[in-house]
Write a structure and sequence with these properties.
The protein has 428 residues and is of the alpha+beta class. The chain is built from 11 helices and 19 strands. The strands form 7 sheets. Strands 6-1-12-11 form a 4-stranded mixed sheet. A 4-stranded antiparallel sheet has the order 14-15-13-16, covered by helices on one side. Strand 8 and strand 9 form a beta hairpin.
């Protein structure tokens, strides 16, 4: 199981994307997760778990893994990636959902597995003009595709990075045989799932992205967070890499999905002077309870750096509240609209200001409880540490125990922080 916090997992669909390629690439990158995955797949029962395995594979001088589900003796069609997307079964979406719920999967794995099937069901429903619950899966209803989705769900839950990112997906070309007859590539449901995602035409034909692969791409595209801001790129460490292969041999390109995983660097990021936006307005006709809810939503908005409120006297001597929000420049317009929507103010003042931030990094300590500590370097070179109160709040005992935990966590963080290497400050 993952032992480090991952900042990002990037999918590079060199040859394409399919459910089995996704599972194989992540198993190659994180072999320590495979035993837990196999335990989870055995929960699906049906007596088929023995045929599920990862095998070494090579293509174009590159090595990695393939993910095999060897319970079905039917031959794969010519365009198959190896994830069984073309097995001609008729399995209602509701039946698959009931099967997954009854399997006793871990809660997060179940959540993601249901979400993946729901993503595909909604696309199929639009293509065929039926309700998502009435969708009957043909290709994705096959046993091996159910296994692929559960395997994908397990890795999504186990790794839980701050962000998933995806390279441009190859479109492919030609025709593919399905339960609905011969269809163009990408198939209609796949094409719907690819809307809004980056694609390329590299001149290599065939089905390069399967329906299960497209559903995984669409599902993960909505799971990015604002943890990595482009305005302040933080240093990262390459934590793992893996290759997952499909069954086809493609001309001039390996039929491979590459995975790159990045963890947060424990070194302090360089000093940064940057321009940000300050949004200000006053409120004198909104209850304190409702304003508190509004500020919580503003703070949670992507691009918000901080938000605070100050008691001020307004016109006619009325006691009012001044709200100040710090935001990334590229998010200022969006956050200003949010302020107008969440509060009773009729106007928001927006200014551009220059700020300088201290060198800082977050260090995770174990004392033995997990406590995050923010380590900062002052201009004099002194390192300071501040433990996160949200973590200290879970320490058993009273204030004395919390204070002892704080001292131990901050001391451990200072001891493990890497020495700072001087860099230019670019003051002018």
């Amino acid at each position: 199981m993952k032992t480090i916090r991952l900042a990002r997992v990037h999918l590079d669909p060199v040859g394409g994307l399919a459910g089995d390629m996704f599972a194989a690439a992540l198993a190659d990158a994180f072999p320590e997760c495979v035993p837990g995955l196999m335990d989870e797949l055995r929960r699906l029962q049906e007596g088929r778990g023995e045929g599920i395995r990862f095998v070494p594979h090579s293509d174009s001088s590159l090595t990695g893994l393939r993910f095999l589900v060897e319970n079905d003796s039917r031959p794969a069609p010519p365009h198959d990636h190896g994830d069984g997307d073309h097995a001609r079964l008729h399995v209602p979406h509701r039946r698959i959902r009931e099967q997954l719920v009854a399997a006793g999967l871990q809660p997060k794995v179940l959540e993601h597995a249901l979400g993946l099937f729901r993503t595909l069901a909604e696309a199929e429903a639009r293509v065929h003009g039926v309700a998502p619950d009435d969708v009957e899966f043909h290709e994705a209803g096959a046993w091996d595709s159910i296994v692929d989705f559960v395997a994908a769900a397990y890795f999504i839950a186990a790794l839980a990075p701050d962000r998933w990112t995806l390279g441009a997906l190859p479109l492919g070309s030609g025709r593919v045989r399905t339960a609905h007859g011969v269809l163009p590539i990408p198939a209609p449901a796949t094409a719907l799932l690819l809307r809004g995602l980056d694609v390329i035409d590299d001149g290599v034909g065939g089905e390069r992205v399967t329906p299960t692969g497209a559903a995984i791409a669409r599902y993960l595209s909505g799971r990015a967070t604002d943890g990595d801001s482009a305005a302040r790129p933080a240093p990262k460490v390459v934590a793992a890499a893996g290759h997952g292969f499909g069954t086809r041999t493609l001309p001039g390109v390996p039929n491979m999905l590459r995975v790159l995983a990045f963890s947060h660097s424990s070194s302090l990021p360089g000093p940064l002077d940057e321009e940000i936006a300050v949004l200000q307005f006053e409120i004198d006709d909104q209850t304190a309870e409702d304003l508190a809810v509004a500020l919580d939503r503003i703070r949670a908005a992507p691009g918000t750096l901080d938000a605070c409120q100050i008691a001020v006297y307004g016109k006619k001597g009325r006691l009012a509240t001044q709200v100040q929000v710090l935001a990334r420049l590229d998010a200022a317009d969006r956050i200003a609209d949010l302020c107008l929507a969440e509060t009773t103010t009729l106007g928001v003042r927006i200014a551009r200001v220059w700020r300088r931030t201290a060198l800082r990094a977050q260090v995770e300590t174990s004392i033995p409880e997990r406590v995050r500590v923010k380590v900062a370097e002052r201009p004099s070179g002194e390192l300071t540490a501040k433990a996160e109160m949200d973590d200290l709040a879970h320490i058993p005992g009273d204030r004395t125990q919390r204070e002892d935990a704080r001292r131990r966590a901050e001391s451990q963080a200072l001891e493990t922080a890497k020495p700072y290497e001087p860099r230019d400050r670019h003051d002018d």
